[in-house]
Amino acid sequence: MPSQIDLAIVSTLLEAIEKIIEYTSKFQSDKQFKEDSLAFDATLMNFIVLGEMTDKLSDDFIEKHNEIEWKKIYGLRNIIAHDYFGVYEREIWQIIKNDIPELKDKIRALLD
User: Fold this and answer.
1) Which of 6, 10, 28, 42 is the most buried (most CB within 10 A)?
2) Is 65 a catalytic residue?
3) What are the C-alpha distances in Å from 97 to residues 6, 18, 46?
């Protein structure tokens, strides 16, 4: 049984994922996405939230739910936070389109 703290963190993860999807849903391409600096910055901030929150999960929870690539999530946070101007919209766009929907399903399943 996960701790209440881990469940609260997972809930925050789901909120951040939903914001990423919401903030990017109106765009058809990485270029459109990058041109909207508010949406781009808000989305990157929510990737940072994802990384920060995964770092707060208990080791037991991470080990039990190793189907999620927690280290990659935190690694992306580090790239965005420490090398903001080195972040390429095409890479972020690919993560949003290819990885975020699956991550959302996995995170939602942890709350069910």
Assistant:
1) 10
2) no
3) 26, 13, 15
Catalytic, 90? Answer: no
Structural domain count of the chain: 1
d(CA 106, CA 52): 18
- pTM for this structure? 0.93
Phi, psi for residue 53 in degrees, rounded to 5:
-70, -40
Cβ-Cβ contacts under 8 Å for 33 (sequence gap 6 or more): 24, 27, 39, 40, 43, 89, 92, 93
Q: Looking up tokens 């600096």, which residue turns up?
A: 37
**Rounded distance, CA 79 to CA 111, Å?**
28
Domain containing residue 81 = 4-111
Give the integer Cα–Cα distance in Å for 38 and 53: 22
pLDDT < 70: residue spans in the chain: 84
Residue of 65, 77, 90, 108 marked catalytic: 77
